[in-house]
Automatic annotation (TrEMBL):
This is FSD2 protein. InterPro entries: E3_ligase_FN3/SPRY (IPR050617), FN3_dom (IPR003961), FN3_sf (IPR036116), Ig-like_fold (IPR013783). Pfam families: fn3 (PF00041). It comes from the Eukaryota. SUPFAM superfamilies: Fibronectin type III. PROSITE patterns: FN3.
Length: 176
């Protein structure tokens, strides 16, 4: 049968001319879907740690935070401002620092002052929601001993000092 079929002359001419239309195919949805497969999600909100002991000096604070998830993070945005009931212009300004690590030491702060901190994580897809806010406190300035008021005798000594801090200090420790 095959041999007979191959001996026949076949007419490949079409009786009518094909009518092709120019069609524009919209692949934007497919592109968007393909791009969404290759992108990473925006990170979750970081968790800011409470202030650690010995993490403060009179003019600096070390702030630490972490992530609960395995998010991809390129950097963090740490924001802070002094905590106060009064408005003082630049003293109340919000400051922002970008860092790569999960900690940062902030310097040039006021002694014995409360600061409010919060942090967000960033990657190529965007920024996470901010963390909860945490309040950190700088250490008080050392007091100034008033040397003219010092008195002593065989069994006692009187030492007077004054604080240079604006905010009240809870207590002092005197070492002999």
């Amino acid at each position: 049968r095959l041999e007979e079929f191959l001996k026949k002359e076949v007419d490949l001419k079409l009786s009518t001319l094909p009518d092709f239309e120019e069609r524009v195919i919209d692949v934007s949805e497919v592109e968007q879907l393909m791009n969404s497969i290759n992108t990473i999600p925006a990170p979750c909100a970081p968790v800011i740690n409470p202030q650690a002991p010995n993490a403060a000096t009179g003019t600096s604070l070390r702030v630490c935070w972490g992530l609960f998830s395995d998010d991809t993070v390129e950097c963090y945005q740490l924001c802070y401002k002094p905590v106060s009931n009064e408005r003082h212009g630049d003293d109340q300004a919000e400051h922002t620092v970008k860092v790569k690590e999960t900690y940062c030491t902030i310097t040039n702060l006021l002694p014995n002052t409360q600061y409010e901190f919060w942090v967000s994580a960033l990657n190529a897809s965007g920024m996470s929601p901010p963390s909860e806010k945490a309040v950190y406190v700088t250490a008080p300035s050392p007091p100034t001993i008033m040397s003219k008021k010092i008195r002593s005798c065989e069994n006692a000594a009187l030492v007077c000092w004054e604080s240079r801090d604006i905010n009240p200090v809870d207590s002092y420790m005197v070492e002999l």
